[in-house]
Amino acid sequence: MLAGCRVDLSVDMTMEADGTGTIVFVATADDDVVAAVPTLAEELVTDDIVAAGWDISGPTSLPDGGLTVTLRHGFTSDEEATNLLDSLGPPFNEMLVERNATEDRATTRVSGLLGLPDGFESFADEDLVAAVGSVPFAEEIAASAATPESALGAVVRVRLPGEIDEEGVTGVELDDGTLEWTVPTDGTVLEMRAASIQSPGDDRWWARPLSVAALVALVGWVTFMTLFIGYVVWVRWRRRSRPRPPMRPYTD
């Protein structure tokens, strides 16, 4: 039964113009997985996931007998987005989101290593192997002849603000501007790279000219008021410094 089991994973990250956004992770197990583990929905433990701030939808039964679970988490910075993506683990490895903003532009970069270089063993770190004594389910997987290619599918989709920098992008750009990567599960590793450049003209073309006009008006007003005050002071000084005419004697 394990030879026919399959799990599909998807990660969608959307970043808004201000650098905030949302990450959505979806895991879908087919009907063979549910048949092999009928109590999967009841035994799924999500306490740590909830404690980490993820909103969980599911497990939800599918018409074909499978199950799906959706995790959703917002982020307010590139550092938080990096931590969230990196917490997903294999096959999403060394995930990194960087955003550098200046007065003129904001550049956003996303990178990572996608794949399972050690096959199913990529899911087990040293602490887990030490605790269990071996890679979990290693014997069952070997007996079923299941491979990562047959048992797992994964995709990453990223939507960034601004214009996509085509140079160095390793993903496929979809019609709506979203970038997509299909994660290899044959033991190879795909380097994930993408970047976007966002300028004030991307979503607020009027903001910079208006700010410049306001600054010019402010400088003009300050200059006018300075000259006006100086003129008033000068006029008063002139009046005070003028010699007064001699007083005529009073006659009856």
Descriptive keywords:
seven-stranded mixed beta sheet; elongated; four-stranded antiparallel beta sheet; 31% helix; alpha+beta; 252 residues; 2 domains
List the secondary-structure elements in sequence, H or E: EEHHHEEHEEHHHEEEEEH
CA-atom Rg in angstroms: 33 Å
Largest sheet: 7 strands, mixed
How many DSSP-defined strands? 11
> Into which percent range does the helicity of residues fall?
25-40%
Strand content: 25-35%
Are there runs of 5+ residues with pLDDT below 50, and where? none
Overall residue-averaged pLDDT value? 79
List the strand order in the largest sheet: 3-4-2-1-7-10-9
Shape: elongated
Q: Which class do the helix and strand fractions yield? A: alpha+beta
Rounded to the nearest angstrom, the distance between the terminal CA atoms is: 134 Å
Compute the number of helices.
8
Question: How many distinct domains?
Answer: 2
Q: Can you offer a commentary on this structure?
A:
The chain has about 250 residues and is of the alpha+beta class. The chain folds into two domains: about 200 residues, no CATH class; about 35 residues. Helices cover about 30% and strands about 30% of the residues. It has eight helices and eleven strands. The strands form two sheets. It has a seven-stranded mixed sheet with strand order 3-4-2-1-7-10-9. Strand 9 and strand 10 form a beta hairpin. The longest helix has about 35 residues. The radius of gyration is 33 Å and the shape is elongated.
